[in-house]
Amino acid sequence: GSASDARVLQDALNHGFHVPHGKFYLVDAGYANTPQFLAPYRGTRYHLKEQGEARQRPQNYKELFNLRHAQLRNHIERIIGILKMRFPILKVAAHYSVDKQIDISVACCVLHNFIRLHKGDMEWPKDAPMEIDPNQIVDVPNGDHDYHGDIHAFNYSRQVGNQMRDHIAQGMWNQY
């Protein structure tokens, strides 16, 4: 009963979220590939485990792109996991405004970096209680009924995104 990731992204884009020119986000294969949101190639080896089990190097530019995409996403997911372990408030939807939630996320990142800079370790999160005040937990409403258009509205962006991804991947391959 919850909105798909692509619909949540579309809602954010419709309400002012934008990606700075020349920048992009890495996304998984569940999203459309566009110039602002780079997804892996479908039907091509992607997961690091698959690459390792094959005991071979990437055979073409698509495999190389997917390998590096997976490595970067792995690093990103690892740091998000560390932040959630250190700051449990990041694990749940809260009763705070979106602007306040952004402030909380940034503050957690700053605090994390401060702790690391001053030789802090991960013992504190291991000893911290995992319970979160039940009053801070909210249900996220289903927003799918608000969107009758589908991801197909991105068709032109997909073509441009595919060209951009191919250009990046072929550049990586040429330097490989």
From TrEMBL:
Localization (cell): Nucleus
Swiss-Prot/TrEMBL cofactor(s): a divalent metal cation
Main location: nucleus
GO molecular function: hydrolase activity; metal ion binding; nuclease activity
GO CC list: nucleus
A Pfam family reported for this protein in Swiss-Prot or TrEMBL: DDE_Tnp_4
Annotated keywords: Hydrolase, Metal-binding, Nuclease, Nucleus
InterPro entries registered for this protein in UniProt: HARBI1-like, HARBI1_dom
Domain of life: Eukaryota
Domain DDE Tnp4 positions: 1-113
PANTHER family: OS03G0643050 PROTEIN (PTHR22930:SF271), PTHR22930
Family to which this protein belongs: Belongs to the HARBI1 family.
Protein name per Swiss-Prot or TrEMBL: DDE Tnp4 domain-containing protein
Organism annotation: Aegilops tauschii subsp. strangulata
